Amino acid sequence: MATLQWGKELELEVPEMDQTHREFVDLLAEVESAQDAQLLTLWNGLIEHTNEHFAQEDRWMAATGFTTGNCHSTQHKVVLDIMREGRVRAENGDLTMIRGMTPELASWFSYHAQTMDAALAQHMTAVGFDIDSGQVLHAESLPAEAINGCGGACSSPAEHHTPTDSVEPLSQAAA
C-alpha cells in the first residue's frame, strides 16, 4: 500500500488544484512501488509533473498578489532541486536517494497541501480568482502589499520576511 493515498483530507475545493494533487499522489505511488528498472523513468515523470504543478501554483500566486520570492514558491524550488538531485544520483546508478526520498516526499506533500496549498486555495477564493481567465474578480480583497508568506497565518508584508522564513526541509517534514 502506498505511503500517501488520496483522501478528503487533501481536498481543497479548488477542482484544478485537487486534480493536480491527485495526479501527484498517484504518480508518487507508482514511484514507490516501482521495480528498479522502471524507477528512474517514473521519477522523471514525477519531476515533470511536479515542475508543472508548482509552476501553475506559482502563476496563481503571482496573479493574486504574492511576491516572487514568497516562502511557498521558495519551498517549491527547494523540493524540485532535491528531486533533481535524486535523478542525478539515479542516473549514476544510485537509486537509494529516490527510494529514501519517496516516503519523505509523501509526508512533506501531505503537510504542504494541508497548510500552504490550503492557504493558497482560501486566498484565491477570497479574492475571487478565476482560474480560467486568470482574473481577480474582487480586486478590493487583494492585500495592500505583496504577500511574502504562504498566504495564511504566516503572511505579512514583504519587508517582514526573508524568502526562506517558512521553508521546511523535506527531512524535517517527515519527522
How does the SSE layout of this entry go?
Elements: H1 15-33, H2 36-63, H3 71-91, H4 96-126, E1 129-130, E2 135-136, H5 170-173
Antiparallel strand pairs: 1-2
Secondary structure tally, helices? 5
Q: Percent of residues in helical segments?
A: 55-70%
Question: Which H/E pattern describes the elements?
Answer: HHHHEEH
* Count of DSSP strands: 2
Give the mean pLDDT. 88
The separation of the N and C termini measures: 20 Å
The general outline is elongated
State the major sheet.
2 strands, antiparallel
| Strand percent estimate | under 5%
Q: How would you portray this structure in words?
A:
By secondary structure, this protein is mostly helical. The protein has a single domain, classed as Four Helix Bundle (Hemerythrin (Met), subunit A). The protein is 59% helix and 2% strand. The protein has 5 helices and 2 strands; from the N terminus they run ααααββα. A two-stranded antiparallel ribbon has the order 1-2. The longest helix has 31 residues.
